[in-house]
Amino acid sequence: MTVRTRIAPSPTGDPHVGTAYIALFNLCFARAHGGEFILRIEDTDQLRSTPASERAILDSLRWLGLEWDEGPDIGGACGPYRQSERMEIYGEYALQLVKQGNAFVCYRTPEELEQLREQRKAAGNSTALKPSDLALPGEEVARRSDAGMPYVIRMMVPEGEGSCAVEDLLRGTIELDWSMVDAQILLKSDGMPTYHLANVVDDHLMGITHVLRGEEWINSAPKHLLLYQYFGWDLPVFCHLPLLRNPDKSKLSKRKNPTSILYYQRMGFLPEALLNYLGRMGWSMPDESEKFSLPQMLENFDIHRVSLGGPIFDVDKLRWLNGLWIREDLSQEQLAQRLVSWAYNADNLMQVLPHAQQRLETLSDFAPLAAFLVSGTLPITPASFAEVKGEPEDLIANMQFALWRLEAIREWDRDAVWEALKDLANARGYKIKDFLAPLFVAIAGSSASFSVVDSMAMIGPDMSRMRIRHAIDVLGGVSKKAAKRLEKEYQQLAPGGTARE
To answer: Where's the motif 'HIGH' region (predicted)?
Structure first.
C-alpha cells in the first residue's frame, strides 16, 4: 500500500499559517513512509472562493518550501483537484445514499429548523436535529415537491443512546456521543455538496490512506465514519493534530495574532525559519534541537513524537528563531540578496514610486518617505494623533468600525478598500478626509503620508489590520463593555458585514 496524504484548503481568504502547519505534517508523514502528498482545493463555497486566494495558497506553500505530488496546478491521475470541477460526482453519490435509505430529502424551511431546535433545547436535549425531528407527512412532502420548494439531502444518523468509537493514530480510541450528531446536510439546495460529503468522496476516490487534520474535526468524525460505512469503503487512518493556539491558550485567530502567511512574508521572516517554527508546533526532534531545516525534519520525522498539548504560536519566539537563521545561515552576500528580493525589488518599487516621486527633492528623501511600507509595528504614541480632529473615543470607534469593515473585504485591492471606507464614512456622517485621518497615523505613523488607501493596498490586509489594532490599543483600546456597544452601533450602519471574525 502506498501511503497517500493530502491538504485541502478553502480559497476563501489569505493563506493561513494553520494550513501550512497541517500541510507540513502531511508532507512529512507521506515522505517518511515513501508515500505521496496531494493538494486539493475545496472551493464549494462559491460566494467566498476566489482564484486570487487559490493562487495565494499555492504561492505561499511553495514559498515555504512545501511541494506536492498532485494538485490543481500540476495535475495527476486522480484529478480534477478542485471540488468545483467535480460537482457531478457528489450529486451521484448523494442520490446513491438516498436510494440506499442512508440519506433523505428534506424540505424543512429555515424557520421550521429554528423552531425544532428551540423545542429540543426546551426539552433539555442537544440541538442536533435527528431524522425523526425533520420528518414530514408523506402528503406534505408531495405538496412541497409539487410546489417546487427548495430541498436538501441529509444523511441518516443514529437516534438512540450510545457512542461512536473513532480510532485515532495519536489519541487511541475516542468515544463520541451519538446524541450530539445531527442529520448532516450532504447536498445543499443549490446542488453544492457540504464539506462532509465532498471530503469523504474525494478522499476515497483519490486513494487517501491517512487523514491528518486539525483536532477541530474530531466531532465530525462520526459522520465521516458513517459515510464510509454507507458506501462500503475502507476507512483511512485518522490522525487529529493539536490546534495552534494564542499565548492565552485560545484558538489561534487573527484578532490576537496575525494568521496570514503573507503577513509573515511581508514582515521579512525567512521561509526556512517560519517552516522550522511550524515544525516545532507540537513536535520535536530526537535531540530536542529547536533549529532545524525541512530536510532534517523529514529525515527524523516520527508522527508519534507529536505532543497533544495545544502548541502556542508565539510571535516573539518566532522572531528569536528567525534571528538565528539570519545570523547563522546567511552570509552577508546572501543577506543582501534576501533584502533586495524581499523589499527592494522592482515590483515593490514600481508600486511606491508613483506616490513618492511627487514628494522627492533628493533621492535621500525616499527612504524616510517609504520606510513605513517595509516596517512592522510602528512606534506610534497617543501624541502621534495630536493633529487629528476628534476625541480619542471617537477615533477609536472609527478605527474599530474600519477594522471590521476591512475584515469583510473578500478581494483586497485599492478600489475595494476605498469603497469600504468611503461607505463607512458616509454611514457615520463623516467627511472622508476626517474619517481617514486617524488611519493615516495607524498605517503610516504620520498624518503627512501619501494616500492611506494606496498604502493599505501595498502592505496588504493582515499588515493593515494589525497596524489598526495597534493604533486602537495605543489610544486606550476597547473594553468588553465598549466592544458590545460598538458592535451594536456597527450592525445598525449601512450593509458591509458584521463585527464577527
So the answer is: 9-19
Query: What is the crossing angle of helices 221-231 and 195-205, to 10°?
Result: 50
Q: By three-state DSSP, how is residue 300 classified?
A: helix
How do the domains of the chain map onto residue ranges?
89-187, 375-491
How far is residue 188's CA from residue 195's CA, in Å, rounded to a whole number? 11
Say if 89-187 and 375-491 have the same CATH topology.
Answer: no
pLDDT digits (tens, 9 = 90+) for 273-289: 999 999 999 899 999 99
Q: Which residue has the cell 480510532?
A: 167
Could you list the residues known to form a binding site for ATP, using ranges: 254
Length of the chain: 501
One of 1.10.10.350, 2.60.40.1080, 3.30.360.10, 3.30.365.10 is the CATH number of 375-491, namely 1.10.10.350
Active site residues: 254
Taking only the tens place, the pLDDT of each residue in 293-333 is 999 999 999 999 999 988 999 999 999 999 999 999 999 99
Q: What are phi and psi of 153, to 5 degrees?
A: -110, 125
- Tell me: domain 89-187, CATH 3.90.800.10, correct? yes
The cell numbers describing 29, all together, are 508523514
Q: Binding site: what residues are annotated?
A: 254
Confidence band for 495, pLDDT divided at 50, 70 and 90: low
Of the CA atoms within 13 Å of residue 224, those in its CB half-sphere come to: 24
- How many other β-carbons are positioned within 10 Å of the β-carbon of residue 486? 17
pLDDT of residue 498: 44
Residue 195 identity (one-letter amino acid): Y
